[in-house]
Amino acid sequence: MGHRGPDDEGISLIDPDRNVHQDLLTENSDRRLAGYRRSGEARTIPHRIGIGHRRFSLVDTSPAGHQPFWCPEGRVCVAFNGEIYNYVELREELQHKGFTFHTASDTEVLAMAYLAWGVSCFERFNGFWALALYDQERRQMLLARDRIGKAPLYVTRDDDRLCWASEVKGLLALRGSSEYSVNEQAVVNFVKWHVRDLFHETFYDGITSFPNAAYAWVEADGSYEPVKYWDVPSRRLRAGDISPREARATLRELLGDAVRLRMRADVPVSVQLSGGVDSSTLLALAANGGSRIHAYTVAFPGSEANEEPFARQVVDHYRGLVDYSVIEVPPDDLLEHADSYIQLMGEPFHSPNQFTNHQVWSTMARQGFRANLYGAGGDEVFAGYSSDYFVPYLRHLLRQGRSARFLREFFLFSEHRPGQMGADYFHRASELVRPAAASLLPWAPRVYHHLVRGESQRGWDPFLTPSGVSAHPGPANDLHGRMNDNMSHWLMNYWLRIDNQNSMGVPLELRLPFLDYRVVEFGFTMPMEFLIRDGWMKWLLRCAMEDLLPRDVIWRKRKVGFPFPLKQWLGQFKGRILAMVQPLDSPFLDMKKLDSGYDAMREQDPTHLWCLISLAMWWKRCVQGDRLS
Predict the structure, then answer these.
(1) Is the pLDDT of residue 179 over 70?
(2) Which has the closest alpha carbon to 38: 24, 58, 59?
(3) 297 pairs with which residues across the strands?
(4) Is residue 423's pLDDT more than 70?
(5) Taken in order 454, 425, 558, 196, is the CA torsion positive or negative?
(6) Buried b or exposed e, range 577-596, using 16+ CB within 10 angstroms
(7) Residue 623 carries which DSSP code?
């Protein structure tokens, strides 16, 4: 995991039975450190607990921020991955309580906060973290993760040991990947739903993710019981409980403060701009906060996926406050770097645009940036996915008997595609009745899928489903349940873990103001009518930002998400892709069918085709151990 922390390395070996510890350095440690032993002597030191850390420094880049970090009196040792964005305010509060600080790091603030408030300190932090903390008085280890789960923490039991790491590869190194069997359930879920990390699983049996918003004391036998300290709100306000004007003002204030905290660093911070509402919001709030911004976007000239003109509109709106860089990633770049990139990612992923992101972040890092404001989370918090949320919202209105509002929303849908002889209206109507039809007529979903989604492709689908394994049922059909599911197991777990793996492979820290816990709590208590209104997704966010952004951006009717010309790319490089994944010996793929059905899958369901290719690449590189060339 050395790529995650190029600045420093430290090791602490602890013997709780004798109440002693030894701190060690390695050849990767900061050369300015003194007073430590070298790690060559580690095997001769008796210990029952070992903590290792690779540092990527953003706050207090001096050697004083070295980890594992021991507080001066030796009561606490902590190693953590993440940032406590409100560490300045917490330090001031702790100083008033009599605590003395010897560094400018957020790591020391975390340690002192634990001494002051115990495990209740997690409720005071604004940021993200995965931590391992040794309490000398209890002689016990504490594991914890942030509320949303931005910082990864993987765990496994190995004989009588509990082991944890920020990447799956760190745990595979214990015994070698060949000693871990592939998790068939994870493979089936990925092919079915095009996401990973459902319910804290990984692609390896025996390696799971420690739950977010939880902490646990580790017992002497390696067992632990997670304790939840936070959850997404489960109840929403009614429309009469808060006015749209008050909601807009509150949201603007919360997001502005979330951006302000995340611009706090001892290194340069950039902004990733797509031309959509979320990333444009972050740039506008950062620029209005007085910071000069360097924004990066990606362009696909000549492609329908090219959103650079919208990003440029936002930059022009803040002319003089924004430095602007446009990155064009060569179309064959992923294939040129496939061997190293698939090895870095360690598990299959849903789209080649992950490598595009990686190249954007690598460019930022080469130009001196170590942190990046990133718009992830806005769609989950403020109902931005029309394919996920609009039809459940219509059902929500019907269940409430609000037929007039239902008709208004149905016909005002902002992403309506005219000129199709009513086909778009028919499609929405068929989606509305599908759950009811499924309960009354069991064959209806199959007929629907055949007519609307091209079920005929399954006759030549090369995926071989393992016997006795079926995909998890999908997320909830009701709107609030769907949003809660997507905010956790069904989308957010995957988005955060893959973005962390991808960005820390550079390394570059992603900072996500939309996932500030205050913003999340606010979004999940807002009336549904404020999230989707007059046919617009993310209505409240658009209203809150409309005076800070160009109208063509904030009230834009169609947004393609982070762009990538997938169908075109799969066709252009078909021969090279098929050659790269062979020979393959996988129980999940019929390679003859992949070859013969490639063109049909590309036309009907390019996302499904890519997921099979990604599965094949992962299997060949990470399971078989053969190079991709």
Answers:
(1) yes
(2) 24
(3) 326
(4) no
(5) negative
(6) beebbeebebebbebebbee
(7) I
| CA pair distance 103, 64, nearest whole angstrom | 6
At 225 the three-state DSSP class reads coil
CA distance 237 to 531: 12
For residues 86 and 261, is the Cβ–Cβ distance under 8 A? yes
Report which DSSP code applies to 453.
Answer: I
Q: What is the pLDDT of residue 427?
A: 63
DSSP 516: -
User: What mean pLDDT comes out for the span 570-593?
Assistant: 96
Residues 6+ apart with CB under 8 A from 608: 191, 194, 457, 461, 601
Name 85's Cβ contacts closer than 8 Å, sequence gap at least 6. Answer: 126, 127, 261, 262, 264
Kindly report the CA angle at 7 between 6 and 12, in degrees rounded to 5?
Answer: 100
DSSP letter for each residue of 256-285: HHHHHHHT--SS-EEEE--SSHHHHHHHHH
In single-letter form, the type of residue at position 515 comes to L
What is the average pLDDT value for the chain, to the nearest integer? 91
Q: Is the pLDDT of residue 251 over 90?
A: yes
Q: How far is CA 95 from CA 78, 87, 112, 116, 625, in A?
A: 20, 12, 10, 11, 53
SS (H, E, C) 123-155: HCCCEEEEEEEEECCCCEEEEEECCCCCCCCEE
The dihedral through the CA atoms of 605, 182, 333, 305 has a sign that is: positive
- Is the peptide bond prior to 507 cis by the omega test (within 30 degrees of 0)? yes
Instruction: Give dist(CA 80, CA 306) in Å, integer.
Output: 39
Give the tokens for residue 248.
Answer: 């807009």
Exposure class string for 149-164: b at 16+ Cβ within 10 A, else e:
bbbbbbbbeeeeebbb
Contact 59, 266 (CB under 8 A): yes
SS3 for 494-507 is HHHHHHHHHHHCCC
Enter the tokens of residue 370. Answer: 């170590």
* CA–CA dist 287, 487 (Å, integer): 28
Q: How far apart are CA 586 and CA 75, in angstroms?
A: 50
Query: Which residues have CB under 8 Å from 366's CB, separation 6+?
Result: none
CB-CB contact of 186 with 201 (8 Å): yes
User: What token pair was written down for 483?
Assistant: 């949003």
β-pairing, 293-298 with 269-272?
Answer: parallel
pLDDT at 121 over 90: yes
Cα 75 from Cα 115, distance rounded (Å): 8
Under DSSP, the state recorded for 34 is: -
Q: How many CA atoms lie within 13 A of 431 on its CB side?
A: 20
Length of the chain, please?
Answer: 629
Cα–chain-centroid distance for residue 608? Answer: 21
Q: Is the pLDDT of residue 440 over 70?
A: no
H or E segment and range at residue 157: strand 154-158
Run of H or E residues at 161: strand 161-165
Residues 335, 576: contact at Cβ < 8 Å? yes
